[in-house]
Specification:
Naphthalene 1,2-dioxygenase Alpha Subunit, Chain A, domain 1, four-stranded antiparallel sheet, 2 domains, homotrimer, alpha+beta, 5 helices, seven-stranded antiparallel sheet, Rieske Iron-sulfur Protein
């Protein structure tokens, strides 16, 4: 065809208009992962989070600190400055800040101006993750944390990884909420042809969107058949994609062998936390925690699972990076068409846009 | 001088205002060369044409196909997808399109939505060239093709080449319509000092602009004296520059030896098709077909002519690329002054701008 | 703190609003250094000065010439053209200009259009420096030159250097007017800890801003103790920072040993001309002349001083380059807070902005 009917394009655009995309402002009143806890220490680490330059470090007692990466005097980056005890000394004119961000010394004069300081951000450290709240500090409530106790539980074993992903975070959430793409983008790694057409159930609760796909029976891709020992065509693979917050998506896999008696067969759980922190409109810090509840002591197996999974995620990074370049050149004629399995992703995008707009309205008020 | 008189600058700007430049919108209702026919096969080839990302391939029966390089679902580039028979399967969620661009399968569901598809573009294959029509499909009339039968004629021999040229296509048309520059930009390749001051005739028919320069007698540059065997100061060199369409310029050379009797001396024709396809405002696909009507079987001579010519075109690519960087930094005080030999180029630029504006008006209507 | 009080931010922004920053238009009616005199010869040298592309060369009799680096015909860069005697021949269509910028030949026609030419700029050569006036030519008064006779005096010895600095020139002026930063940015090269808190005097005359810091007694940094021979804790180091024009800042150092009797101790003078020529809003040609009035014949000592100083200036270039990247990402919430020693820099920035605005008003009138 030369073009879809104008009526279809109009309908598609109308459907997309309440959905978040890469132009939508970030949602600030939310916990995001700033870094793996183990990445932060006594070096001043710069990182751009939600479009803002932040410097991260730990005080002598190990407390993590995050503050704007810029001296309030002449905007010199504090990440190029010096950590002395629990204070940062700007490497330009020596302005000294304590770990609360308060200015406590101006070397060129005896008196230090009062009430001056750098914005610091609430942090929460939970197991391997360091969470940051970039919005209104008084709303930074620990109860809002999408905590993942399994990432630090004794009966789980986890590995981790990180990508600086060259695409926006909304597209990655959408990627994760419909794993149809396992059969195509990941055909050579973690996908099988029967994954895409398998039956699924949707979850559309406000702020919590999910899609559960049951591929029964199936033959597992090599990385999972090797780790679970289910090698035949009788495997069950039940995958739950869950949007838990703008910062977090969890994919939970349940595997068993349908050839074994139901009451005695083992069930294998493989979870992945996809931790998404916008860097800019077109890039994202992508932290990954990958865990299993079996073969806890088999480190070689854990490493093989990790390697297999990361090979697949590399495909996401490259594919969504290429997609982002297409969006770069989108003109006013751009449109996208959705299908049934996009329902959770569409609802999620409407949710993100509504929250972003509410924040913007409050800022404007 | 510190500056030309204000009156001269005002007059120059007024003269330039109806002329196309790199800011002028592209002309879409026109045949452009998408690629050499031999460049397209069973690989999915991405190419940006007139600012639009297109993917090119051939079906199993060899028919060339061009369509927008983006799945209508989530904008994944089809050029990173899979060609299966005569269908493209998007490498993200597996949407399958036939060679007409119609969506024929959505793997995550049984029913395929109807009336959905990707925009495809009319193509015409003529000898070595694959032409594309990026405008209104119903206007894609083969009779509008600026066909060049000599490029595939038995009594001609042709070679070809390609540059991704870092400048806009209007400047290249202008470059070709006044070959005065042979004496300067190409002084060491295909130019001689007597070329610039030689007498010329202008052709200013609407949509067809030309300049014929007769350098008689002259000594040919080495590349042409070697190929024609005219080594003395008695050569005739008659060069016709012709704008044939926004996509095509032909330079035709006629050479003979004035020392020989008119009725018996041989005449040598050397033609070059300069095929200009805008990629972006500041870049251009530059396809070249270079032919001769003599020494048809002397492949070594053909190769030497080609090498000599491409050395000159490399000078155009570098020179006009440098000029483009000057235009990048042009401010509101920018002006250009024209001389007599610019008349065809000026008329051509007025023609291009008028056509572009007419198309824009129709789009707006 | 999470943020300074809104009242402090409002006050800071109000204080900054009359101050020049990197968004402020350039000041054109002023002498700037185009190049070291020795850099200009019979090659056509391109250089962007105050956002304009200029080409520099010398005529056969050695006179320096600066003109716009663009043929008035089709904007080809003259710096890619040919210098023939005292004329430039454009390498595109052969337009020939004399050293006054007047068009004197158009090869494709017999008659040369009259009154056409390229803008040339007044130049002044003084010792090692070639100064250019980019503004109204009739205002180019030699008496306005911030001449530095010591740079060519017999009783001084000077070395020079050049950086293409990746930051704006206002920030560099500010950097130089408060050398507090010697104790921090240059802690390992030319700074000592007692420099920042040492007493200082301000000079706030309109158009001439200064800060004199007296560090007495002190221990000199190695580069200066070695060159002056003052190795103990009894040195006097008196540093005068002077803004002399938008194009020039001079730092003058006076050194002596307080342990010696006042009437007989030697005094050492070390001067540095920091010569700032904006290239773009975010970059600057940074010419440096560094001189001493002692050990005139000790070339090794001169070289060691030069090496030590340039190591420090490399720190400025890197530090201010990093600061510029912070400013790149500044949003509408950006603010900066000043302290007492910023007074000359603040007055200087107000002066620059006022001059820029006056020029803009005159242009608009």
């Amino acid at each position: 065809m030369t073009l879809p009917a104008e009526s279809i394009i109009v309908r598609s655009r109308k459907a997309a208009s309440p959905m978040a995309n890469r132009e939508t402002p970030f949602i600030f009143n939310e916990w995001y992962v700033a870094a793996f806890a183990s990445d932060i220490g006594r070096d001043l680490m710069p990182r751009t989070l939600l479009g803002k330059r932040v410097v991260l470090f730990r005080t002598l007692d190990g407390t993590a600190v995050a503050m704007d990466d810029r001296c309030v005097h002449r905007s010199f980056p504090l990440s190029r400055s010096t950590l002395e005890g629990d204070t940062i000394v700007c490497n330009y004119h020596g302005f000294r800040y304590d770990a609360r961000g308060d200015l406590i010394q101006v070397p060129s004069q005896k008196a230090c101006p009062q009430g001056i300081g750098i914005r610091t951000y609430p942090l929460l450290e939970k197991g391997p993750l360091l969470w940051i709240w970039m919005g209104d500090a008084e709303r930074a409530d620990e109860s809002l944390l999408p905590d993942q106790p399994w990432t630090r539980a004794d009966d789980w074993r986890c590995t981790r990884d990180y990508f600086l992903h060259p695409g926006n975070y909304v597209s990655m959430h959408e990627n994760l909420l419909d794993l149809t793409h396992l059969s195509f983008l990941h055909a050579n790694t973690i996908g099988t042809p029967d994954f895409a057409p398998a039956p699924y159930k949707l979850g559309l609760k406000e702020g919590h969107y999910s899609l559960v796909r049951s591929v029964i029976p199936t033959r597992l891709p090599e990385v999972w058949s090797r780790s679970t020992g289910i090698h035949g065509d009788t495997a069950a693979r039940i995958i739950t994609s869950e949007f838990l917050s703008p910062a977090l998506h969890r994919v939970g896999g349940r595997y068993y062998d349908t050839a074994l008696p139901e009451h005695s067969r083992p069930t294998f759980h493989i979870f992945t936390a996809h931790i998404l922190t916008p860097e800019t409109r077109n890039s994202m810090h992508y932290h990954i925690i990958h865990g299993r509840d079996f073969a806890l002591d088999d480190e070689a197996l854990g490493q093989a699972m990790h390697t297999g999974l990361i090979a697949a995620f590399q495909e996401d990074v490259e594919g969504l990076g290429a997609l982002e370049r297409v969006l770069d050149s989108a003109d006013e004629q751009h449109y996208e068409i959705s299908v049934a399995s996009d329902a959770p992703a569409a609802a999620m995008r409407v949710h993100l846009k509504r929250r972003a707009e509410l924040e913007q309205q409050r800022l404007g008020a």
